[in-house]
Here is the input.
Amino acid sequence: MPENTDLCTFCVTYTIRNEEDTILDAIAAHMAMGASKVFVFFDGTTDGSREIVQGLEGVECFETLPPDELSLDVAVPEWFERIKSHFDTNMDVRKQFNTWLAAVKAREQGFDWLLCIDADEIFYPVGQDGKEMPAEAFFRSVDRKYDQVILRNLELVVDRNDVRDPFREGVYFLNRFPVSEEICRYLAAAVTRIFRSPKITEWTRYWFYMIRFRGLASRRLRHPASGRVAPIGYFLGYRSYKSAIRLSEAEQFIFGVHKWQEYTRKPVSLYRGYVLHYDLPNPDKVKQKFGQREKSIYLEKSYTRYMLNTIALESDFDVLEESFKQLCFDEKKLNSMIEKNIVSKINWTEKYLN
Here is the structure.
């Protein structure tokens, strides 16, 4: 097949709340990669994010508003009508609407692809051969039969508790092992059906990865007051993915927060490339992310993140800092994980910010 030489343009969209510590660098990195446009939707933002972002060249800013309060030139799709009653109470629903709106605007402006990610994530274009490549060339390499590209996340590995500039300082990431992940997923699902306990499910994951990687990637988080222990098997954050959609086909699909799903037809998806996820790089981020929320919302999803939430809510910051050290890998363990290809050193983001 002859190589596709057409220029491929891409845009990025964010729905953010209080991300002034990361959003400017996140935008700068993607613009340096060649993003044609960045759409930023503020969702109840109370920090300085607006002032930082507004007025930047190539960036369009919006407040998150229900469709009834917007003057739209196109009809809101029927799939959104089914969920819009949850608009006020569910951020995922607001993000779905914002991303649909960004896709409409990007398509009207003639762009080819739209990438929806979070402010603590950086697009990492890696080709079929496993080598880094320019973002434009990455999208150009995608066969026209594919509607979306699924980008697995690579989670930041924290090796100390004083990281202040994660996009520049954070260079170690957990590799992905799809077969192991599928086995663990089915095992955890079976345990969940039997015991219906997030704690038991989390310990199941812990022991699976303890055996799989001989203890190298596993950690335990102890609550400083109660002494309760939460296990960390492999992923501290989420193990899923984000996606980029071909804009010429976007109206046929439903945006489902992480990927686009069937509406009038099922999207044809290609798994290629990654997003670098700088999740919880320091105690300050833990306090920001978990210290302002109710504990119960994390219990069903992750017992470990529930424990982090509890520590952030119940402890002074110096206690939180000490607890955070339990999430960090020491130099010896980190070197062993690099040697066994569990962890990779990736300097991609620093290259674009410098």
